[in-house]
Amino acid sequence: MQNRSNPVRAALAATLLAALLGLVGAPATSAADVSLEARGLLAGRFSSGGWLAVAVAIANDGAPVSGYLVADTTDGVVRRLVDLPAGARKQVTLYVQPEAFQRRVLVRFEVDGESLATAEVEVRALESGAGQVVVVGDGAGNLRPQILARGDGAGPEPLALATSDLPERAEPLRGIKAMVWADDSTALSDVQRLS
User: Fold this and answer.
1) What is the CA radius of gyration of the chain?
2) CA 53 to the chain's CA centroid
3) Is residue 27's pLDDT more than 50?
């Protein structure tokens, strides 16, 4: 007499195996799940041969994923590992060294060599030989004409910045001649204060 339960067990095992293989083959995320925005700190300015700070806001509205934030410059590539749980919102700062005449830096989030999100940052080198003045927190522009009138007129027009435009490291500040403060310094992080 033949045991009829063996074919039933085999069919159940085959069904279970097919279901497991289907789960393993499902993609973890799609290109629409991860988004990023990037901007150059210090209004995208950098000293020739120096460092540029790029602030990146990255979000994941899909399944958890790990990958690299990558910034391309003509001088090289910077990669930083980022873990993005479902629903994650992260702020990451990348430090890159663009070449003097570079005008754009491409930032992307990639998983296994595939770009899931990209952004371009407009950048520009500071004028060499002329120190740049920045005015922090003067949104109405009241101080800029006074700084221009009292200066020697040889330097570029002062850059108007918010406290969020200041990097946490000192290296990107190279080429800044003076910083005029017109804002409440309590908005600075502890790391920014130490720079």
Assistant:
1) 25
2) 9
3) no
Greater confidence (28 vs 125) lies with 125
User: Quick one: pLDDT band at residue 54, thresholds 50, 70, 90?
Assistant: very high
Nearest to 36 by CA among 97, 89, 111: 89
Q: Residues in the chain, how many?
A: 195
Helices (H) and strands (E) in the chain, counts: 3, 12
Give the integer Cα–Cα distance in Å for 110 and 105.
16
What Cα–Cα distance (Å) separates residue 95 from each residue in 46, 70, 89, 154?
11, 11, 20, 30
Q: Is 161 exposed, middle or buried (0-12, 13-18, 19+ CB in 10 A)?
A: buried
Note whether 46 and 175 are within 8 A (CB): yes
- Give the C-alpha distances (Å, rounded to integers) separating 194 from 99, 107, 167, 189: 28, 27, 11, 9
| Predicted model pTM | 0.72
Tell me the CA end-to-end span of the chain in Å, nearest whole number. 85
